[in-house]
Amino acid sequence: MLATAAGCGIPDHTDVQVDGSGPAVSAGASSFGRGEPPTRTASGTDRETFVRNFLSAAAGEPERAYARVKQFIAREDRNRLAEKQGSEVAINVVRLTEDPVITENASGLLTVRVPVQQVGVLRANGVLGPPVVTDTEYQFSLRGSAEPGEGTEAGGYYVTDPPSVLLLDALALQLYFQPHTVYFWNSDATRLVADQRYLPLAVPTERLVSEAVKWLIAGPSEWLRQGVSGLPDRTALINNAVKTDGRWEVNLDLPGDDRRKLEKLGIQLAWSLSDLNGPLQLTTRNQSRVTIDDLAAHRLANPVYPLTEGPQRFTVYAGAIHPLVFEAEAIGTVPIRTEDNHDIVSAAVRRAAGEKTLAALVTAAPGGRQRLVTGSGAAPVPVMTPATQTFTAIGRPVWLRPLGTAQPYGLVVADGRLYRFDDRARMVPVPVGVAGQVTAVAASLDGHRIALVVGGRLCLSAASLDGGVVSLGPVRQVATTLTDLSAVDWAQENTLAVAGSTNRSAVYEVGVDGALQTALVTDVGARVTHLSVYPANPTYVLPTVMMMYEANGVAYRYRSSSAETIRSEQVLDAPPPPAGGRAGSPTAPFFLF
Length: 593
Known about the structure:
Blueprint: H1 47-54, H2 65-70, E1 90-96, E2 101-104, E3 110-123, E4 128-129, E5 137-144, E6 157-160, E7 166-169, H3 170-176, E8 177-185, E9 192-200, H4 208-218, E10 236-237, E11 242-244, E12 247-253, H5 259-272, E13 280-284, E14 289-292, H6 295-301, E15 312-317, E16 320-323, E17 344-352, E18 356-365, E19 369-377, E20 385-386, E21 398-400, E22 409-414, E23 417-422, E24 427-429, E25 438-443, E26 449-454, E27 457-464, E28 471-472, E29 476-477, E30 483-492, E31 495-501, E32 505-511, E33 517-521, E34 528-534, E35 546-551, E36 554-559, E37 562-565, E38 587-592
Parallel strand pairs: 1-7, 12-13
Antiparallel strand pairs: 1-3, 2-3, 3-4, 3-5, 5-6, 8-9, 10-12, 11-12, 13-14, 15-16, 15-38, 17-18, 18-19, 19-20, 21-22, 22-23, 23-24, 25-26, 26-27, 27-28, 27-29, 30-31, 31-32, 32-33, 34-35, 35-36, 36-37
């Protein structure tokens, strides 16, 4: 948990490194097993490749991580790396902020300097937790494996004066590990919430079922605990999962032996094994049994998100909400009444159960101030209620998607603070627990994972709605080389779209644990002030990223690594410009889904 926004050792100013294909491996180095990192001698005489391979050596199954790394270290220095076992294995994942710098001194010894950003600590249970160290640079030396003067052709290099911790380049994490999503129920077991794990590619495929069960037994990531529930204490897997006659069999010691809990676990496991089809049987020590005839059909019968319709695009034009018209996309209808559709600055509209629509509008108020107006009901929303207080500036509101007839809540940033609101515009401050002004907020599809921009940095927290009160758990800062962040939204289950600076305004996709970082738009041209994404998800799959944003009062639509301006002629029923005047610009684009 953060003490302050700057407390995780993340540099304030770094050049962006666009993650590529991973560490180089020399010709002839492909003889290592599936998903195994290169060996010490794979680089031959290429010192740069040797360094990259050394920063990949900790990949693979965690119980052998120290052994693989120590193969790169000179025998006389191997005791400098204190070895840990089992759950204590900790691999420090780092992002190189520059290429390694290798210099040769007068005695022929090579010195290596590796500037890094700390991303997090990868544990044996597949969780990439927040960083525990703050080093922004590592130094070590290289020597040849032969006697002085004999060269390195035969035996390559060894590391001397090694770092005292296991290091893994974030590129190697992507190359040698497969990310997997596991799902935990929220506190009242009404909605599944996604959590990310990493499985070494070196792990045999047939172990995936056992690993997924162990992940669920171990519980959620620390930052997510307030928003979800784990399995009952003392739940255990009895032996490994086995496949018999085409059916996977999982035997559990489940305290209480509750069949309903076993059925819920079956849904969790079906989604946590989203690439697996066919039958699966769960059996407890007391012989309670749940049989899933087909995992794919079970997922269809128990959708992870309550989505029934695809997204529709809207924008604010001349102070009113209008649908956007794009070829081959559904065109929506304005979800609020005409008498409420004026003086709008930005909006958030969501579908809810029972044909209900949730609407939250930021509107202009007297004296140049802004006010939140909210309502719910069948579209067009029949009653919109204004908040009693006004603010200098209100950010884009977000709804926490309710279940059934539960009271709907949302979150919004106003004058640097986070507020909870409901469908009658009652606003209550929500403590964030980390220093800095809050400037943006976004909620995942499950409604329990919250992304925040606090003090210009990216943070995550879990929202609990127990007792009708929205509260946030511990805040985790997410590493990214973007600085001066201005907007955020959820791009996929485990990734975020983030707007910030790389010495020029840009939008990047950033993983929830900071390991993934991919450029979407590298040069926006102005600071992004509004960002809206339809989050990709396994319930309603779309072929491409759907993202819109606003910068310098102009709205854009993202299309395949570039962006195009949203024009006034793409605004349905746009009012004509005044006589002799020019058409206005669409602003604050958003999705209804």
